[in-house]
Target: Glutamate receptor
Amino acid sequence: MAAPYNATILRVVAADRPPFIYSNSSSPYGWSGLLVDLLPVVLALAGLNATLKFHKSPSNTGGVLQNGTWTGVAGEMIYGRADIAAFPFSQSWERLPFMDFTFPFDGRGLAILIKRPIASDAASVFTKPFAPSLWVLAGCTVIGFALVLNILSWMSPLGNYKVVRIRNMRTQAEEQRYVLQDTSKSYLVDVLMTLNQNAPMPRSRSWSIRISSAGFYFFMIILISAYTANFTSVLTANQLIPTVTSLQDILRSNESFAVNSGGGYYTYMTQSTDAQILTLQPQLKTANATIGGVEAVRSGRVIAYITELPSLIYFAGLKPCDLEVVGTPFGPAVLVMGLQKNSSYTKPINTAMERLKANGYLDTLNNKWIYNSSQCASILGQEDEAGALSLDDFSGLYLVLLHIILISSLWVAFEKSALVVLSRHPRLAENLAALRAAFRRRKKRFDLVRAFSQSHETANSANWWRAVYRAIARKYVSGAVAVKFCRAGPLPEFRVRPKSPSAANRPDMRSFLLEFNLGSNAPNATDRS
Model:
């Protein structure tokens, strides 16, 4: 039963049909959209001071007649469970005997939605995966990070030089000298080398530069991988997407297209007497509401989706901007709201709708919800940056890179603090040096034995001893090292016993700190004759 004209509460049934109406928990009504803005204005203009109480249709559809029963929004209206339908109905002869309709709030006809073709410009197609702003930022990041490495190298006590040990091996002199050798290089070249996934790390003795370089390499791997994946999709889409601008193009393509199941558009496509529509019927598929049709086009299941023009303009304007509306509007697509049959609200609401159409308020709502809400540069067949990755897609990755640079800066402070501590506590420095020397000797023993084993496996009996002596020469070690080798029996034991440097010739604390932080390369610091 319809509510009386002076009712204080109006029951409004709705279903998701962006941009006309969609669920929104933050809205006062629990819904947002063009019709949610329109309905209170219409009621106020019609002199109706009633509270709107929205509820969702059980099937979230407009509704069709199935086995003698109406479903969806139409069913809620016809069976008296709602007073007015905030839903973009198409005026169809099937519903007309059972419902009243308002005057149209839109009547621009049907249109065709396709996946946007990608321009086949061979000279610039490689730039399509990234938006221009992202290209600019990536270039600035490379130059900026090279500057960061130079600053860290300048601030760190280990950044620009290394310890080189010089000893006269010919005379077996005990005296050893330690010098600082400058290792500054072009960090810009090192940063550019990250474009090669097998690029070496910068040869810095400071862990601050190593940490930041590792973070930047991670950043570049993600960036290059994203570019490669998106570039592949650009090339694939450029080859697979055909160009469709009309119903005739759909017919020639022999591909499927979609319309919403049930409702006036499905009736038009299946019962029309137009010859062109009749020839398209074998290619027809149905979609579950507008969102289902849009996803069918985007995924490639159908070549096109046909529905009212305003809805297609809205969805073509949403990111990732890979859809466009083509062709000239056609067919019946007069959008109205529904009321109960013979409702007392029909006449005053229709009068208010005519006034809102005349004063331009309907055009204002169309601009707000359809055209001005577009997130894309163009939606009607003009070229824009479809599918290009933007700054927003990499904001998290840049945040990670900034945190890594911060950690590297803190490590520089640690290196400077360690220098002060070791300078003030020589005994601590000596103990750390002894511990490090023990690890060096163990590593050298392992390397020497491995070198002997390789020589034994590859050399024949005639030059075996020569290969052994060459291995000894290549793997000279400090400290007593015993190497036992077997070739058809036990062999003599070789011992290399170089003299240790005197305590008077030890490096100062600054040189010690530099050598201590050299890692695995420090034990074999350059020996020069």
